[in-house]
C-alpha cells in the first residue's frame, strides 16, 4: 500500500470512513462466520463462503491503511465479554435503519406514509442514540479518542479474521 507522494498520512475524514468500513465489515464477518453452520442449502452456503472470503480480503486491505492514520493505534488484548460486540451489532443495525428510512422518505409521495416513515425514522434515531451512549459509557465506542477507536477496530478485525467457521 502506498499513499500519494505528497502525503504520508490519511486525512481525518478518510480515516473515519475507513474506521466505519472496518467496524461494520468486522461485525458482518463475525455474523456470517457464526451463521454459516446453520445454512443448509449448498448454493447459499457457497455464497456465504464467497462473502466471507471477500470480507476477509476487504478488511485485510483496509487495515493496511491504519499505520497511515493521523493517530497511531496500538493493538491490545481483545475483551472476552461479548457485550461490546453485541452492542456494536445493534449500533450497526440502527445506523442502517436510519439511512434506510431517510432514503425511503425521499421516495415517498403519500403524506400518511411519509408521516409513518418519519415516525419510524425518529424512533430509529433515538435507538441509535441509546445504543451509542451505552457503548460510549462502557468504553466500547471511544468516539472522542481516535487512537482508541482505531485500536478497537484492529482488535475486532483480528478477531473476525481469525474466527473459525464451519
Automatic annotation (TrEMBL):
Stored Pfam families: Coat_F (PF07875)
Keywords: Capsid protein, Sporulation, Virion
Gene3D superfamilies linked to this entry: 1.20.1260.10
Alphabetized InterPro entries for the sequence: Ferritin-like, Spore_coat_CotF-like
Chain ranges passing through the membrane: none
The organism's place on the tree of life at top rank: Bacteria
Subcellular location per the Swiss-Prot or TrEMBL entry: Spore coat
Family: Belongs to the CotF family.
PANTHER family in the cross-refs: SPORE COAT PROTEIN F-LIKE PROTEIN YHCQ
Name listed for the protein in its UniProt record: Spore coat protein
Species classification: Bacteria, Bacillati, Bacillota, Bacilli, Bacillales
Gene: cotF
